[in-house]
Amino acid sequence: MKQKKRGNIRFLPAIFISCILLFNGCTYVDKFKEINSTPAIMVIPAEKVQQIDMIELKKAPDEAIVKPETVEPEKAEYTLSLEECRALTLENNLDLKAELINPTIEKENLKQAEASKFEATFTGNTSYNRDNTPTDSLLVGSSSERVNINLGVDIPISTGGTVSFDLADTLNKTNSTWATLNPSYNSGLSASISQPLLKNAGRRAFTHSIRLAQYNSSMTDLSTKLAAMRIIANADRAYWSLYSARKMLDVRKQQYDLAKATLEETERFVEVGVKPRIEIIRTKRDLADKLTAIIDAENNVRERERDLKRMLNKKGLGMETKTVLIPSSLPDPVRYELDRNRMVENALLNRMDLLELELQLEMDSMTIEYNRNQTLPDLSFEYRYNIDGLGADRGDSYDMLADNDYHDHQVGIRMNIPIGNKRAKSELRKSIYQRAKHLSSKESKEAEIRNDVLNNIDKVEAKWQSILASRQSTILSDEQYRAEKRQYELGLVSSREVMDAQTNLAAAQSAEITSLTDYQTALIDLAYATGTLLGAAKVEWAPVVPVE
Question: What pTM did the predictor assign?
């Protein structure tokens, strides 16, 4: 029965190692080739770096100035509401997509921190020694060969220690006449534990890096939320900016039509001799100014459209397309009753940048606790239990190992104390100073938030008053224009007074449009200052996992 037992375990280490090499050998060879292969170096031509090219511009053929009444080919239109603008921004915005990857990256950092602390490690090594030793006696020189194979696994434990299991297998051959067993096989199985008692002892010290990674992950989530809010708020601003640009264009076209009507009327007056010919020159020059204003307004509309298209990033609605965006949501000039104290309190609760500082202060407290632990002496308890086996062949050696007749224990204390311990003490002081700095930053941030909210509340109130004032100015400017036009028709004033009245009316209408959109933008800024967004529906985001 004993010989059968030997046959079952005699080649156990060799079989074990062969399996490892069989399953992993090819992978390791490929990795070795990959690591040691010479990487391709990206070479940039010298002229690409040292030479600055000139832009080539081709002169366009001469053509007459296109007037607004000229019929142009119809362009596709896309009617866009403010709610759809936000939805498309959340779905397609490239900046937002980049921000949403950050939480995924930080989650991987957390997994790495956990793995570095709790992941077990397989160890293995093998060696071959051949010794030839001369002697000063009548005996022949001693020659020996030794083959060592060691396999093991190290398992971290949450208290900061490490549990290890090791299997050793040694083959000895010698030409010594004194050797009883030649060759001889030694085997050993050991279990050990090493546990810090002061420095790095305990679960909190052991998991410090993991808890820091968790806080960093939470801070990244807050930063991502803040970025999402900023991007959506910018999309809202771009929406109202496009609305304003389109309304401004309508005003410019309306002023052009009025100036054109004035020119036609002036030409009739000149034909019948009621007005001098210089009035035609004046009105034509004013008409040219109105045309220039239309061209500038149209260019401004195209710029605002491209800005919004870039944010929306909708397929088929790229920046290079000629599709016209038509905002369908109108400004809602409603005066709101704003509770200053309540809004400041909500801002202190909701602002992500303030929450980031609070998390940073928690991290600072943990770091101080950890650095205080690092100032303690490095004192560790160690225990090792070992079973030995010896035999003329590997089977006898493992039989003795299984019988556990020869075992030993080892208990020890290991101590390592830096003289002066200056580095650890300096790290502790540094972490204390860092927390004091962040405390001051938090107080400064709270004051900044209060100031930001109060300023935006005042801005909302001021923009509301601007709406009322600009409306009144538009009404009066329109009445003035009509009165000047009647005076001109009666021959009491020149065309200059009519054109000035038109200009004042256009300025008043533009100011009213600006005040309406500025009021909407002020509400967006106020919501952003309090850590919220405008709208009836909540906005939810989720991390993006890139496709590998």
Answer: 0.75
